[in-house]
Amino acid sequence: MFETLPNARRCALLIAASVAALGCAAPAFGQATGQAAASESRGGASKPRLSDAKPTSPNATINLVHLLVKQGVLTEEQAAGLIKQADDEAYIARQAAKNASTRAEEAAKAANAAAAATEPNGTRHVTYVPEVVKRQLREDIKREVMAKAEQENWASPGKYPEWAQRIRFYGDIRLRHEGDYFPSGNGPLQSYNAINTGSPFLEGNGTVPNPYFPPTYNTSQNRDRFRFRARLGMDADIYEGFTAGLRIATGESGSPVSTNQSLGASSNGGNFSKYSLWLDRAYLKYQAWDDGLVLSGGRFDNPFWSPTDLVWYKDLGFDGFAVQAKYRVADGFKPFAVAGAFPIYNTDLNAGLNTFDPSISAPIKLRSANKWLFGGQLGFGAKVADDANLRVAVAYYDFENVQGRLSSVCQVVGTADSCDTDMLRPSFAQKGNTYMGLRSFQVISTGWADYQYYGLASQFRPVVATGQVDLATFHPVHVVLDGEYIWNSAFNRSAVAAVAVNNFGSSPAAGAPAPYVGGSTGWLARLTVGYNEIKKLGDWNVHAGYKYLQSDATIDAFVDSDFGLGGTNLKGYFIGGNVGISDNVWASLRWMSANSIAGVPYAVDVVQVDLNARF
């Protein structure tokens, strides 16, 4: 009976059957077949006529997508993606149907040939493949085609291979104008970092005055600098919770607290010389329990919660190993914990320096002086109201082997000579910490000058309390109050004062020694109003705060490098704001006014105007 149907209706039925079997939307043919039937019922074909209606898509899904775009539910970009997906799936379905038909025909031919070989001549066969078998064949072949399409990526031309889809690139660029303005009355501020990272300083031995001036920081000449920062990173999803990350960044040096590059910097040679790139991040990470447990190793972001830069510079990278854990105990209450071990300084394998041992009349290698940071933090986040969140944490940090020690008696007659505690000097420092001389000299003759290195006079085991209140009453505008307090529990004032070479106050009487006035505490308070993150045009926030950080509350190498041009022993105000000028592009303005707390008079105002972009 099927053979006797008119060609038009026979094609329509074949199309409908194929589409129904594949689960795809069939072309709209009901109206056409209906018109044909009506013509036949009238006993003749009607004259063809033109229609004013807009042709519809042969796929109901695509028609629906166009309708949603017309009604404003979807954007053109989203619609294009959905249509492409529909086309891909239709293509795969057609391939599956084609392959299924081919295999069915081949199977039928093979069966007929086998049957014909065993039956008498003249026997005729009519091939019949049950519909259920056809459907099963189509489904099996569709799965095979889909798997091959995903593996070889021929169903979506231009799409990245599977391994490339697990890699995400990101980056940012910042252009900055910075003005550093010094008032009159600043004293010369000695740079112990310049001495410890270069040649030892030739100082007097008490018999004669020091004939040389130590290297100092600029504290009197106003400066304007144009700077930029560029960073490019990659995160890769490896397998079952394992990820890896790399990031490169600009920077004038290997400083842990700055990736800024000054345009035309003399340290780089000027004259449009090229700039250096540094490996800023390199880590492996394992995440489990919906990120409730995170294990990190390598060089990674600060694992401790630290919303301010009182203790840690915001972009500081940590070398070592860390574990982070959090768990929602109840609705709106989530405790968290962090612990880690981080090598600060690892002595060269061959120790680099030699010293003479008179007991064996031969040179020996100096003892290694590895330095470590061990830290732990406990805290919780709580939703105290529908529009208010609270977060509180307490941390303890133990810096091992960072304090300087006086060497055994050593003879130094030139810059190449060494003593057995030289490697305890900081390999990087900003300014503010209290220092002591490391070398105990053998007196050769009266008036002899000695080459000296300097180490930290105090031990450091700071305890840090941190809190933040976020009020979202006027969401998306938030009101955020941050606070942080630090106390160096290992600070011993009398022991530090006995060896200190800086951070003295003024003498109470003529001829009397100046008292040591360094300290071990610090705090910061900041109020921020506006959007929590600047993402789009018109997003904004403003902030204002006050910082007070005594000389030996923490190691000055790791704190903010902008306030007071970096370091501890500083106090003062800061204000600033950000405004979005496009998607992922924003402008920033900051003003920071800092003064020294102890020691040499020092003050500076720093103004920064930034243009930021991320991608």
From TrEMBL:
Signal among keywords: yes
InterPro entries recorded: Porin_5
Residues of the signal peptide: 1-30
Keywords: Signal
Domain of life: Bacteria
Protein name per the record: Porin
